[in-house]
């Protein structure tokens, strides 16, 4: 187990998920944005523009590396090649934070490119904790583990998600990444109180907060089914849930994710400005 | 069967029933909620293929592309989370995909697109100092070994792949010709370029890539094309930073 200090040095300020089309705008005037997050898997080539841009960005901004493909919740062992790629990236970039998901994406050699759910049991808890120990060993730093967005639940689950995450953090020393949009999406889809989830969440372990937009669909019973699409503005109830969270956690590094139908820089910077306003309302 | 085996099968094969014992959080069955994962996987992997093969998509249209991409991703799901590498077998798959079999130029066009993405992510290299050619005594030139930049990719095709690529990516580009074309993908800085090779150029570059010295490569080129003009091709390679190193073979 690695040490239990919060797993990153990100400023308690707004950041955005970096998109290459915003490179010139960010370098000219980042506005309220104080740090950037990149998806690890987009920077695993040998060279070229992606790596060069990331080097330049890292000279100006703290960078958070966000993995989307390690499959920490997978039933099989972690992919040693992918662990080596993550270690290489962390070694040369020395990011201010590294985070990954409570989810799986690879099984039987197929990478499915989605954050798939797992049941919460003693057995899955042990497996996830072992994988996090292995990852933290490989990258020689503590990580942040992100809560998922859920569309369904497993009959065999015996633990609440918040208890599962708290115990993982306790066993491995990892910090947590609290995605407030995911909380709202899961709460709507599974019929629980998002505020109750925040109340039960180990907020002292939170090193970063995520915000994103979601789409609205319907389930078979005509109830709203929210889809974590990252393709639009953050929804009003999610901003309210951010205020609720920050009032209890204190200020945290807060990220806007907008991965699909990516807008022009001013629209993304506008969302970051709103996050900055939410952060200034919070006593330090 | 394990949970994740059930999920993997049901996600990749929509004809299968959804896995059992999935709930909606209110003690009801999850119903068709599982289809969110099927949709996410199909759409995100189709998008990954669209990003690497935009010309193929333009040539066959978005509907046909979605069909062949859907079939491909079920037969060949990615084996790595680094999606810029996804689609290595897509050109071969297009060649075997019966509904598109009459479009014989698709596989090589797809190989060119795959090569452009590989080139984009390839390692950087400091280009050779062009003065090396002036400094080398004329009688030593045949013994010079050139090393191509890691971002260079050679493609030989019986189809006019360069013309097809240009026609579908450049405003006002001419109709593709009716003859074979060989291409060298170069990366002068960060943006890969498909360069049309003159007759003999591919034979020359294939020999260079196999570490043959300049003299042998020249022989290969002139065997194919007696009029092969080394200085024009060398000029292009230097202009595009496609030569990473040039060393004199000291062996007799």
UniProtKB/TrEMBL annotation, chain A:
InterPro entries for the chain: MbnB/TglH/ChrH, Xyl_isomerase-like_sf
Short name of one Pfam family: MbnB_TglH_ChrH
Family per similarity comment: Belongs to the UPF0276 family.
Name of the molecule in the record: UPF0276 protein FLO80_12365
TrEMBL record, chain B:
InterPro entries: DUF2063 (IPR018640), DUF2063_N_sf (IPR044922)
Domain spans labelled Putative DNA-binding: 4-94
Superkingdom of origin organism: Bacteria
Stored Gene3D superfamilies: DUF2063
Protein's name according to its UniProt entry: DUF2063 domain-containing protein
